[in-house]
Specification:
This protein has 7 helices and 16 strands. By secondary structure, the protein is α+β, with helices and mostly antiparallel strands. The protein has one domain (19-61, 93-324). The strands form 3 sheets. Strands 1, 6, 7, 8, 9, 10, 11, 12, 13, 14, 15 and 16 form a 12-stranded antiparallel beta sheet that branches. A two-stranded antiparallel sheet has the order 2-5. The two termini are 37 Å apart.
Amino acid sequence: MKSFSFYSIHQIKLTVNQVIKHILLYLILPVLLIGCDLQTITPHTSPEVKETSTTTLFVATPTNKPTSTPSSSPTLTGTPTQAATRTPTPAPTLPPEEVKAWIEEMLMTNGGCELPCWWGIEPGKTTFTEAIRHFNPYASKISSREQDAETSAGIYFFTNTEGIGLSRFIYIGFHVHNGIIEKIRVMGIQDLNEYKLPNILEKFEIPTEIYVWAYSPLAVSGDQIQPLRVDLFYPDRGILIIYSAEGETKGDVTQGCIDNGPSYFLWNSMLDLSFTQAMQEAGFQLDLPPLPVEQALGMSPEMFYQRYKGDNKAVCIETPANIWQWWVTPTP
C-alpha cells in the first residue's frame, strides 16, 4: 500500500532545527497515516473478517531476485481450505490500568514468541480474525481496508506512557493475504533496554546486511543537525529493524548516537524479500537510498556486530559528510 506524507511548512516560518525535526518525523513514522483512508473499527467491537483455516499456509513462490529496484513483492500462491466468514464476540471495555498491564506484559514477553512473531502474532500462520480477537479488548483504534484477497489493517494503542517505555502511542500494522497475516509493521517502542540496538545484536547476532542513512536534509554546507538511521536486515528470519536518531554534521564528519527504540518490519520468512523490497513495504521512500555499512562506516556487518553488541554500549557512529550531500553531482 502506498504511503503518504503530509509534511509541509506552508505558511509557517520554521527554524532550521524545526525543519529537521519535521523531516526526522517523516523518516521514522512513514506509515502512521495508514488509518486516514481506512475503514475505522470502533475499539472493543469486532469487525466481520474473512478467516481461512490455519491448516493450510500460503507459501511464497519467489521470483528471481531483482537486479534493480523492485516495484512489487513476491507473488503468493496457494489454495485456502474452507474459507469461512465469522464475527468475533464483542469484547468488554477494560479499565486503563488493565490495558497498561497487558501492554507491559507484551513488551516484556512478546506474547511468548520470538521475532518475526510480534505479541503472539506469527506471520504466515496467525489469521486476521485471531489477531483481532487478541487485540480488540486492549486497542484504542483498529482500522482496516479490504480489497479482493488483500487486507491492510492498523492497530493503535494510546496509553499513559509513564514508566512503560512507549511514546504517546504504539502502532501495529498488518498486511493480510487470504485471511493470513503475512507482514507486520511496528512503531512506537522507546527506552526499553531489550529493544535497543546492542541487545538486539546480542540476541540475533550478525545481521546479513546493515545499512546507514545520513543524508543532509538541506542543500547547504557547514555544521547542521540532521537525521541518522541504521537498518539491520535479517532476511532469512524475516526481520528488518530500523533505528533512527538525530545526528550532527561538523566539518567533514557526520556523527550521532543511536539511543532510540526501533521500528520493525516483520514478515513470513518463506517470502523472499530483498532489503529494498522490505524498506518499500515498510513505507520508506528510497529516492535517497541508504548505503551499505561497508561504504558508510568502513566496516563489515561482523565488525559492526563485534563493536556494538551487548552491555548497553552506546552506538555512536561517524561517517564522512561528503557522501551524504545529495545535491552535489559526483565527478566522473
